[in-house]
Amino acid sequence: MAMSRAIQLALIFALPIAVLSALIVVDRTYGLPGRGYDYVLRIELPPAEAEIGLPDVHGPQDASRPLVVIDAGHGGHDPGAGQGRTREKTVTLAIAQAIRDNLLDGGGIRVALTRDSDRYLMLGERSSIARRLKADLFLSIHADSAESEMARGASVYVLSEKGSSQAAVRIAAHENKADVVNGVALSNQSEAVNAILLDLSQSESRAASVDLAGLVLRELRGKTRLHGGEVQSAAFAVLKAPDVPSVLFETGYISNPGDAAYLSSDKGRKIVSAAAARAVRAYFARRTEV
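RE: above sequence
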């Protein structure tokens, strides 16, 4: 009787498991891909630990000339903000290329783009390109978006103090492996000295970033609409390079029809890119005078 009772209990528990297993086999064999969706999106990611190739550097062949890395936000399967034909990734690439051309036409400055086509880059890869090229400036181009279509105008961001503090832990761990910050070999220093070097590097870079951001706003003022007249700060991951002055330039609100049309026009791109190029030249001119 006890044995019969045990067999009954075993069957009670085994039957649902058997049914579930059969359903899984049927689903895997005959089920449609996508689990009810009509497509499957596959994204090829770079192999782990692989470094992305470096872009070409244009301009003077003299390595002593300042180097600016311009980052066109978004790209590839990441279109950014916008709808229809006006997408952030397209707008940012056109403006980045216009700034590059403007700087090269003026001479004396080397320029590289993180992307010169519609391709996807991870945030860490963008700032890594600037660091690996030993850039003097990193300028990331974006077009903002808001729920309200009333929001419009350009704004300029640097990494916030809070963002810098959060980044310091991650960067320190990375830099201890890479062994270099601002040209100083960390492997030859104590942990306390490493922390001081990193903090000094970040402080110096942030001050330079604020300087450049202020110059961009100065050159834009009176020539295009501004969303805010002061330098903004936020914990943007793309700005977290410890030893490269970095600025994120929100060229306008792509969610606003007027801004979207302006940034997509030749006139708008010319005004915005010329202002950014003048700011970069003014930034380097100040450092030459020191």
